[in-house]
Write a structure and sequence with these properties.
The chain is an alpha/beta fold and 359 residues long. The chain has 12 helices and 13 strands. A hairpin with a 5-residue loop joins strand 1 and strand 2. Helix 3 packs across helix 12, helix 4 runs parallel beside helix 9 and helix 7 packs across helix 8. It starts with a helix and ends with a helix.
């Protein structure tokens, strides 16, 4: 029994030392490099597109800001869908989601209040924003979850990095303006999905700066597998577009964008809804990728745009920002602040008011 007793004593001492070292490291991190804590709510579908968690809550810190997020069973931000009003599903990235804003301060909820005032008990805005998503995520998300939601309108709020993300994620390859081939880049490792829902994991995210650093490292380096091996044609496990497609002079990104928007529009036509594409208005040319800039200039200058559901908020938002978008952004972050969300809502309502009123 003595060897066992010695082993238990040594194990106890080692465990105690480890706990003390972890606590010391946690204290050091809090003092020297304090973290903005966040409970993760994003997941990746097995098909490679991003989605919010199903139900439950999450929260995020940024400096003095503390934002709380809730999700319904359809993976939308907000409460359960519980009435039969005309449903307006908004799709978009973290701007649409309302990152670092409480629910009532998002531009989707500000649009809801405008609708309640002008058309009482008639229209329901649904927040389908997903942080880190791009244009290629939305057709797949809609094809997976859209039928259950059954919206009468879909508003895709196009943002300044959506096309760059569509190319980077490799979810679709465009053969021409009509034909898309399914592919993929990222695949989430199954263990990371499982642990993210455990109470201990979320408790540590809520209370530990050190654990938040660890999670960031795991998200960047461990949780996801790159099936393209950084777009290496010799190593890729999935189909890739030609490398020339990524050249600045290539028209491929515009072709892919038109194809993806057409896929969204076709889903709407098949499912009896109407698609509208409205820009967030936060399009600063010098900060956009070359692919997003090329498309924005194409639709801004084109005499015959290949679709009639595109609307640009940029001039309207710039006027409300007095020519300086920084006035509408969260400092040191770049997402719309409460005033920025109000600007997007005001400008978008000018486009939507009559169209929605005809329902």
């Amino acid at each position: 029994m003595k060897p066992l007793s010695d082993f238990l004593k040594i194990s106890g001492v080692v465990s105690g030392i480890c706990i003390v070292l972890i606590l010391i490291t946690e204290l050091f991190v809090r003092i020297v490099i304090p973290q903005n804590r966040m409970v993760t709510w994003l997941e990746m579908h097995e098909e490679g597109f991003m989605m919010n968690q199903q139900g439950g809550q999450a929260f995020q810190e940024f400096g003095d800001r503390n934002a709380f997020y809730r999700f319904n069973e359809q993976r939308l931000r907000g409460q359960k869908i519980k009435d039969e009003r005309v449903k307006v599903l908004t799709l978009g990235d973290s701007f649409t989601f309302g990152l670092l804003l409480d629910e009532e301060d998002t531009f989707v909820q500000k649009l809801q209040r405008k609708a309640d005032t002008m058309y009482p008990d008639s229209i329901l805005f649904l927040n389908g924003g997903i942080g880190g998503s791009g244009l290629a995520d939305y057709p797949l998300w809609l094809e997976e979850f859209g039928e259950e939601i059954s919206p009468q309108f879909i508003i895709y709020f196009m943002n300044y990095d959506d096309i760059n993300r569509a190319l980077s994620k490799n979810l679709f390859i465009s053969q021409d303006s009509l034909n898309l081939i399914r592919s993929q880049r990222w695949e989430q490792r199954s263990f990371s999905k499982k642990i993210a829902h455990h109470h201990w994991y979320r408790w540590l995210q809520t209370h530990s700066d050190l654990f938040n650093i660890l999670v960031k490292i795991l998200w960047k380096n461990v949780y996801f597998e790159d099936l393209t091996h950084n777009f290496d044609p010799d190593k890729s496990e999935v189909q890739l577009p030609s490398l020339s497609s990524f050249e600045e002079s290539s028209n491929y990104s515009n072709q892919l964008t038109v194809s993806l928007l057409s896929r969204l529009d076709n889903w709407c036509k098949t499912n009896n809804c109407e698609l509208m594409v409205i820009t967030t208005g936060f399009f600063e040319i010098d900060k956009m990728s070359v692919y997003d800039r090329n498309f924005y200039e194409f639709v801004s200058d084109s005499i015959s745009i290949p679709f009639d559901f595109y609307y640009d908020n940029s001039n309207c938002v710039a006027e409300k920002a007095d020519g300086n978008l920084s006035n509408l952004k969260i400092p040191e972050d770049g997402h719309p602040n409460e005033n920025g969300a109000q600007a997007i809502a005001d400008c978008s309502w000018n486009i939507l008011v009559n169209k929605l009123g005809n329902q």
